[in-house]
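# nightly structure sweep
# worker-07 picked up a monomer target from the shared queue
# config: single-sequence mode, recycle default, output format = structure tokens
# input follows
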Amino acid sequence: MNLITWEFTGGPFHFGRRGLGQEVTAAWFSSDSLFSALISRLAAIEGAEAIDAFMEPFVNNSAPFILSSLFPRVGRLYFFPVPVARGKRELKENISYKDLKKVRFLSERLFMRVIKGEDLVDIYPKAVKMQNGILLADPDEARDVPSQVWKEDKRPHVTLDRLTQKSMLYFTGEIYFAQDCGFWTAADIREASYLPTLSYLLNEVGEAGIGADRSTGLGRCAVVRGKSIDLPEPKSDGLMVTLGRFLPKKEETHTFMKDGCAYKLETIGGWITSPQEMNQRRRIIRMVSEGAVLGSLPHPCGDLVDVRPVYDGKAGLDHPVWRNGQVLASAYVPAMKGG
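# output follows
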């Protein structure tokens, strides 16, 4: 499976996660949020009719492309989500569960080793630990790269109480990348005619900013084409590891029943910013997080859902608000027990 990638450089960024305070920011940006950002920019530039035409193949289960989430990178060294592990591993000397739990991302070479059946426990001792153990890289990949890829800071803000008009201080978390560091995303292009449009919209999203607090200057970045990467396609009788958030269709729920599956769920909420209507809260949905190990499904798999609010049985907006749970995934071979 040959994938096209794009690299994002700039910032700072603020990526909020439901259930966490504004002082906390994530170090990645999920695929459904990235897709929504594309739609938002298209609506702002070309209007509602362009959205209807753009979304038609997605709605009809013939997605012209599938995006991964935005993951960290150091130059051309790309990091992938760690596949979720099931149960307790047999640990080796000088390795703790705390050490393994801290690891969130693997370099491309280590990721390929893990998805082909090697155990992270065997890889961990000789791997280069970056970002305080959040990132792991192969020693040959990690030459001349910084051990601290990003730093987090807090920006002060002041708001006024609506009743008393007293000022109140609060902080938002921000993530700053080191030089030549940032994010990357991949796309499985299934319809070549969509590639120019996708490239154009990704650049527009970079100009407008991604994540929260864009009105205060956060999130702006330069977007350029990256390298091509090749990942093994999921086999029909095997397992897959997801590279984005996943929302299965009802007929796809058997993916959770395959032996060896392991996954985490996220509750997704947030606000709708529409050029035609006042801001409103999206309906809350639950999605499977990146790095989930699931039973393989035919591509494209996953569902689209309209998350506009409903009041007294009626939609709160005149147009759909799409959340894209169609997922990009790679084949995965589980490590042998005790390996």
